[in-house]
Automatic annotation (TrEMBL):
Coiled coil: none annotated. Residues 18-84, 86-176 form the DUF1285 domain. It comes from Zhongshania aliphaticivorans. InterPro entries: DUF1285, DUF1285_beta_roll_sf, DUF1285_C, DUF1285_N. Pfam families: DUF1285_C, DUF1285_N. This is Proteophosphoglycan.
Amino acid sequence: MPALPDIETLLNNQKGAPPLDNWHPELSGDIDIIIKSDGRWLHEGVEIKRHKLVKLFASILRREADQEYYLVTPVEKWRISVEDLPLQIIDFEVEGTTLERRILVKTNVDTWFELDAIHSLEVSTDPITQEPKPAVTLNQNLQGRVARACFYNLLELAELRGDDLILRAAGQVFELGRAQ
């Protein structure tokens, strides 16, 4: 089996993101695109199955101060709907030991983010099911929902601090919830 790339290689191999911070067109309107809570993108009720097209759309997606989601180009800005969070965290890579650990998380559109002070992991609790709802802060005021299997694998790296489970990465401590 080939060796996995190291964390620096994963971070550096990403293509540059469009300069969304420099693009401020007027609102063009609403477009019938919905990002479902399971990460699927629908256009006019039909799932967009071309992964490259979803990746393209995700690269021009941002959440603005009004808490709405927009696809933005230099000359257009289209509001879309998002059921939960726009991206999914589906995998991760770990490098280093507990105190010097680095964790990179991978989104469903093949982008990597290092868990750190900027790209933090936060866990809330669903008020109805009492299930954990972990999310990672990404770029462009976006967040990614951590998939259940990925979260349970991250829990294997957790340690106890009193009654709480914590995860250490990049010099940060992320609270994962109460130990059961």
